[in-house]
From TrEMBL:
Pfam families: AIRS, AIRS_C. Belongs to the HypE family. CDD domains: HypE. This is Hydrogenase expression/formation protein HypE. Gene3D superfamilies: PurM-like C-terminal domain, PurM-like, N-terminal domain. SUPFAM superfamilies: PurM C-terminal domain-like, PurM N-terminal domain-like. One of its GO terms (biological process) is protein maturation. InterPro entries: HypE, PurM-like_C_dom, PurM-like_C_sf, PurM-like_N, PurM-like_N_sf. Residues 32-143 form the PurM-like N-terminal domain. PANTHER family: CARBAMOYL DEHYDRATASE HYPE (PTHR30303:SF0), HYDROGENASE ISOENZYMES FORMATION PROTEIN HYPE (PTHR30303). Residues 156-301 form the PurM-like C-terminal domain.
Length: 329
């Protein structure tokens, strides 16, 4: 299970098994989506599979995740999604009403994101060999001219910005799955980020890195960027926006919010000269009202993320080994 959690074990699987087997310069960038040239156009291309349990949760469903997750992966390359494919893997015995509800949620999410589901596939596996409904989506979108967003572009001096409060999705899933109550309902932040990225690109096309911190949370995303670019990252722990309900839930569950998955947030590495304008544009968008500067990119300790604590010390924010909360996306 650790190999599917988005942490160190996932990275080892990709680096030691998949990347050598598949090869290719495009795959080697290891971004949220691949950017390829085809017929004179630059396309972003991404695929993702969704195995969340439960299928429906406060703030969304597996159908919403399938659309938003793929749309957001494309947006992290600066592309606006145009078309999606959708594969349903159904377990024998799942109620048709459940399949219909998932399909309707997926279709509604696609319309909200402005993307068309253009093709698909259905498979059925025997009872006991699935968990109701699994989904796979792939997406394509155009990358605007002059936009080059990828992990390797982070450089010392970049300002690190997160688009809002972290940890909501993972805690929402766990609260429903385990029947836990924290005095207030915690809803997933599941959302399509294409419009927010458009607002940022309107300020400057020179965004260096974008990443949506899903599996492994903010910690995994920052470590992947630091390793990919060979730079260090220094965070101000106090500046990271953690909602009180998430902090309280994580304290009860023994979790660190930095490692909890998000489904409607992004982290950006932005040139310092553009940081104030980009932050203002983010805060003017409904999905970025709580955007905050949380740190900077440095030349020291390349490949490592450290956080300055509220007590004046520092701690290393490691890449997690696996996922604290399994089956959250």
């Amino acid at each position: 299970m650790g190999h599917g959690g988005g942490g160190a074990m996932s990275a080892e699987l990709v680096e030691n098994v998949f990347a050598p087997a598949f090869g290719g310069r495009t795959l080697a960038t290891l971004g949220d989506s691949a950017v390829v040239e085809l017929g004179g156009a630059r396309l972003a291309f991404s695929t993702d599979s969704f195995v969340v349990r439960p299928l429906f949760f406060p703030g969304g469903s597996i159908g919403d995740l399938a659309v938003n997750g793929t749309v957001n992966d494309l947006a992290m390359s600066g592309a606006r999604a145009a078309y999606l494919s959708c594969g349903f893997i159904l377990e024998e015995g799942v109620e048709m009403a459940v399949v219909d509800r998932v399909a309707r949620a997926l279709g509604a999410a696609a319309r909200r994101a402005g993307v068309e589901v253009a093709t698909g596939d259905t498979k059925v596996v025997e009872a006991g060999h699935g968990d109701g409904v699994y989904l796979n989506t792939a997406g394509i979108g155009l990358v605007p001219a002059g936009v080059d967003i990828r992990p390797q572009r982070a450089v010392p001096g970049d300002v690190v910005i997160v688009s809002g409060a972290i940890g909501l999705h993972g805690v929402a899933i766990m609260s429903v799955r385990e029947g836990l109550e924290f005095g207030v309902e915690i809803e997933s932040d599941c959302a399509a980020l294409g419009g927010l990225v458009d607002a940022m690109l309107a300020v400057t096309p020179d965004l260096h890195v974008l990443r949506d911190p899903t599996r492994g949370g903010l910690a995994a995303a920052l470590n992947e960027i630091a390793a990919g670019a060979g730079v260090g990252v220094v965070l101000s722990e106090r500046a990271v926006p953690v909602p009180p309900q998430v902090a309280n839930a994580c304290a009860v569950l023994g979790l660190d919010p930095m490692y909890v998955a998000n489904e409607g947030k992004l982290v950006a590495f932005v040139p310092r000269r553009e940081a104030d304008a980009v932050l203002a544009a983010m805060r003017s968008h409904p999905l970025g009202t709580e955007a905050a500067v949380i740190g900077e990119c440095v030349a020291d300790h390349p490949g490592m993320v450290v956080a300055r604590t509220a007590f004046g010390g520092t701690r290393v924010v490691d890449l997690p080994m696996g996922e604290q909360l399994p089956r959250i996306c």
